[in-house]
User: Fold these one by one.
Assistant:
Number 1:
Amino acid sequence: MTGLPPKPKARPDKVSLRQYVRLFRKDILSAQPARLYRAWMAEFRTPFFRSYLSNDPKLVRLVLKERPDDFPKSDRVGEGLRPLLGNSVFLTNGEVWKRQRRIIDPAFEGGRLRDTYGAIWEASEAAVNRMGDGVQEIEEQMSHAAADVIFRTLFSIPIEDKIAAEVFRKFQAYQRAQPILNLAAFVPLPRWMPRFHRRATKENARAIRRLITDLTDVRMQDIKAGVAPNDLATKIMTTADPETGDVFSTEEMVDQVAIFFLAGHETSASALSWALYLLATHPEWQDQVAAEATAALAEGPDFSKLSKMRVTRDVFRETLRLYPPVPMMVRETTVPETFRERNVPVGSQVVVSPWHVHRHERMWDNPDGFDPARFTTENGKSGLREAYLPFSAGARVCTGAGFAMVEGVLMLAMLCRAYRFEAINGDIPVPEAHLTVRAANGIRLRVTPRV
């Protein structure tokens, strides 16, 4: 079973603002017109602000790499996430954000990836043992697996731990109750006005933060007693800002753990689910991944063997191209700009869309096709340089990008070494975007153990 991977239907070019808001709140991707897959830029106007979708590599480079301070993150998307994420590095700007990154970044440097490899291996083994055979709901399985990775690497506890399991359960409830955008994303509200978050959203966010606070308090005590494990939480909580000497307070650490869980769990689960679906519909690639994993992983957890799994890496990289977990990033102009000879006022929303850049008809050969070998071609190499940003780019590139690539490649390899994944005729997942790119009605595959 091969062919083009599923893609949401685009809306007509012209719809009313009311229709657009309704479509956008339901699903970001299908709310966009088809012309964006070939446009270098598009302008959208509402009664309250202007929005400029920027696919041109020069504009992407300007906004994300050359002048990031002039294009801070927009608060509009953050309004919906603030009950959970507080003042985390995902939502802050300016000097606050820079201070947070100075403390967080050392925990994810190259040498630390080797230190976390054993925990990722253990979580991958646990995912293999949980999978079983028969028809499986893959998104559920991968959500469980990705959450397990986060807890093992961050706090040295498996998902079966009582608090970890409760955070996972509450987070699933939070996702069901939280739309990607609330009213404040479309209508500028003064700070004193309520943000119209759903009651369930606020209750689940408070419960998650209470549980994370408990974990953080215990770790603080262990650090003071000198008995804390050498994991990511300990590293972050003991790293001082090199400019001020300050470390994170408990409340600040809770904000950061919340975004680590959101970003590290939700995005990885999305990418792994789509990767398994793509391999199920392209069995020739799945067999290559399985063979490569059998050869590279035979001697157990050896970090150096990751470099041998080039096919698996390219499969995962191609998955991130077709289904970038975070489909759009929103910035805001702080000074008057000119984009492609068009005036862009202060306060405009600048949207960089990995979803559209990664499938852009003018930048990629066969943009909607699944072809992991494309990265060996000149077009694929230029695409990686100019039109590939699953982890953003520039100063705000995801600090866990290297971590995610290790997790994705190893988890995919171990699962394909143990099982064969087959698509079910007529059961085709349709991607839609809320917090991340997921399937509208889940992803089901037939799973059988490899002999």
Note: Residues 180-196 have pLDDT under 50 and may be disordered.
Number 2:
Amino acid sequence: MAYSPLWHPGQALGIVAPASAPRAPEKLERGLDALAEDGYRVHWDPGQLAQRGYLSGSDAERAAQFHRTLTHTRHLIAVRGGYGCLRILDRIDYAAAQRTPGVLIGYSDITALQLSLFTCSGWRSISGPVVIEWDSIPAAMKEDVRLLLEGQLLLPIEGLTTARKGQCTGTLLGGNLSTIARMVGSRYLPDLEKKLLFIEDVNEPPYRIDALLTQLKNAGILERLGGLMIGNFTGDQSQTDQEDGDIMIQTILDCVDEYPWPVVSGLEYGHLSSRRVLPIGVSARLSADPNGGCLEILDPIAKR
């Protein structure tokens, strides 16, 4: 089946700021310069926003900036995560987004906007780098973003640790666990029945991860999953030590022990300087056996 690429050299990559403002303006400038050096023509109007505390502008300003950028290009990358996307989900024109199907690149807090665009507008996205880190991420991450934008499939992710055996094919969804839990009860969270869910988080101790997963359980979400991939649960930009990491994994496994679907850990995804780039909203297959787990991406983010 032939697919059309979402992006090709020469097309603009729109810069959106739906969440927090950069802590240091020079990081944004370095990121924009690095994108240009890598061949991306960026569309960015810094005059559209005015920093408002920890946000990149008021709720109305950030939503309007997203919509204005979408009129220029359907290929978007977020300046930064942090916090703020949840506050503008009810301000997004999902009908307009559906008429202009695109892709949003980012992670962490950007999870909220990526999942709501999938639910309400049918968008597929890339859980990947944000602008302020583009100058410092490994070349492999940049290459994965390029491959996805060009409509290609990523290689299977092998060598995952099997926590529970099984196999499931379903839509790949996920991102930041805290953000996903905060979407419970809203119309913006996708139906996760038979879906393959990948999760990560940062600066959350085991008891808070327990509480977040218990919220998903009590909402009837966990029992309907098709499979779970456990990413990194880290401290501030660095992986927790081995003992804390073991406690975290055991906490998560205890929360999902009663369910029959496959579970793997060891997915290098999360708040790490070098991590996996994952598509959101595509078909994938999770296989978990005693020899290890494997995630295969079956569908490009480009639409037929």
Note: The CA atoms of residues 116 and 186 lie 10 Å apart.
